[in-house]
Specification:
The protein is of the alpha/beta class. The protein has helices at about 20-30, 60-65, 75-90, 100-110, 125-135, 160-170, 195-205, 220-230, 235-245, 270-285, 295-310, 310-330, 350, 360-375, 385, 415-430, and strands at about 45, 95, 115-120, 135-140, 175-180, 210-215, 250-255, 265-270, 345-350, 375, 380, 400-405, 440, 455. The protein has 16 helices and 14 strands. The chain has a five-stranded mixed sheet, sandwiched between helices. It has a three-stranded antiparallel sheet with strand order 9-12-11. Bound molecules: ligand F0G.
């Protein structure tokens, strides 16, 4: 008999989680104004809100925490992080920051000016937020297959070179750089192929443009290249990552994802002049250039996490768990973004609740219903997250309306995945009874999804 697949780690510490009753959840979600970000974590049984900062650190990472050098300037932890970044990405220069959006804030303070156009593959919301906050425009040049959840394409995160070239030809003088998100979170944790990265590099060179990678899940992207792209099957994840980054000029990184830490990030780049310019903003917003808002222990844990996060066995365990959940949902006929993504399963809310008007927030309604069913917390990636158009202030309704079930790294077992799958199945079986959604009663001007308050349109 073939030895079955299993995790590449065992558990050394656990945390108790608590089930609740439907009555309790009805009260809690009402008090939270039907916004899952406003729940207390103890009101949640299985938390799939995000895979960001929610991973379990290893024994080696925890021992690195003890070894952290907390000197204000020139800490050995900074040099440890610098060496890890150089080895894994090839970039010579870097700045530590407190998290991914800190990296965006610092780098975009140098690169983005009012009226600029920043093309990319479905920019993540904080990336778009930092562009629009500077009165610049994020133009989505992702391939069309990305917005059809039923189409199977191995690299749905790819940038469409034709769309990009059009932007560069028409508005080339306004484009300060191209951003490629690896993997693409907004379209379902979908990877970008090496071939596409090379093509975009050639195009950028033709027009003399910089390329920045939003690299939060670069290791998962490298994993997909290894298992899906011809010619890479015998390369290591780190060899693939080095090649990927060789086609970029700079990167922003949220270490809360593929470096498997609870907090941290960085910017890395080829150009020492860009480092110099960004350093000014780093000192202003984040902290001195050798700590950037992080403790020495955080930088140590990041250095260790970057190596663990780029081990094939670890990535195989992780991505197979996401696949396990996705395949259960497919068995139950639940509509998903296909193929199943790297960091989570993205349920297609438009096909799940086709009769609910989009104005009543289909994916957010689904997220609330799933929480009521069993205390599982997912997150909306749809019209709520898409925010209003900054000029017209009209709601933007994106092509994709997802309930994302993001899987934290090394945290839950497949039994937990079974609970999630059956909860969604129950909901799918009674989907025709979900006839009412939600209406917004209060929202912020930008990044509204974190604090928005809703009321029910009818009865739940
Ligand atoms: N880029 C991508 C692709 C992301 O997914 C995120 C965060 C960021 C940048 C910003 O990083 O949170 O460290 O400031 N994504 C989280 C999520 C929040 O739930 O997908 P951050």
């Amino acid at each position: 008999m073939e030895i079955p697949f299993s995790e590449s780690y065992k558990m050394k510490m656990v945390e108790t989680i608590r089930k609740s009753s439907r009555e309790e959840r009805e009260k809690w979600i009402k008090d939270a104004k039907y916004n899952l970000f406003r729940l207390k974590s103890e009101q949640v049984f299985i938390d799939l809100l995000t895979d960001s900062g929610t991973g379990a650190m290893s024994d080696k990472q925890w021992s690195e925490m003890i070894l952290g050098d907390e000197s204000y300037a020139g800490a050995s932890s900074y040099y440890k992080m610098k060496a890890a970044i150089k080895e894994i990405t090839g970039f010579d220069y870097f700045l530590p920051v407190h998290q991914g959006r800190g990296a965006e804030n610092v780098l975009f303070s140098v690169l983005v000016k009012e009226g600029n156009i920043i093309p990319g593959n479905s920019h993540f919301d904080t990336t778009k937020g930092h562009i629009e906050f500077r009165k610049a425009i994020a133009v989505d040049c992702i391939i069309d297959e990305a917005s059809d959840t039923t189409s199977i394409h191995p690299f749905k995160g790819n940038v469409d070179p034709v769309k990009l070239e059009e932007v560069l030809k028409k508005n080339g003088d306004k484009v300060s750089f191209i951003i490629i998100t690896i993997t693409c979170n907004s379209c379902g944790g979908q990877p970008v192929s090496m071939e596409n990265l090379k093509t975009i590099r050639k195009l950028a060179d033709k027009f003399g443009k910089m390329i920045v990678y939003d690299s939060a899940r670069f290791a998962e992207n490298a994993y997909f290249i290894k298992v899906r792209e011809k010619g890479y099957e015998n390369k290591t994840i780190r060899e693939i990552a080095r090649e990927m980054f060789s086609y970029a000029d700079a990167m922003t990184m949220s270490c809360k994802k593929d470096a498997i830490v609870n907090i941290g990030g960085f910017i890395a780049m080829k150009d020492p002049e860009l480092l110099e310019k960004a350093s000014v903003f780093n000192i202003l917003f984040e902290g001195y250039i050798t700590y950037g808002g992080l403790a020495g222990r955080d930088m140590n844990a990041i250095a260790q996490g970057l190596f663990e996060g780029t081990e094939f066995e670890y990535l195989n365990t992780r991505i197979k768990q996401v696949e396990y959940l996705g395949n259960k949902l497919i068995e139950f006929s639940i509509p998903l973004q296909l193929p199943i993504g790297g960091h989570g399963v993205f349920v297609d809310a438009k096909r799940f609740l086709p009769d609910l008007p989009k104005e009543e927030f289909q994916a957010q309604t689904l997220a609330v219903q799933l929480y009521l069913e069993s205390g599982v917390r997912g997150v909306e990636i749809g019209a709520l997250l898409a925010d209003r158009d900054p000029v017209t202030r009209e709601n933007r309704y994106p092509a994709l309306e997802f309930l994302r079930l993001a899987i934290p790294r090394r945290v839950y077992t497949n039994n937990h995945m079974d609970v999630v799958a059956v909860s969604l199945k129950n909901l799918y079986d009674r989907r025709k009874k979900v006839t009412h959604g939600l209406k917004i009663i209060k929202e912020a001007n930008i990044m509204r999804h974190f604090t928005v308050e809703f009321d029910l349109v009818g009865t739940i």
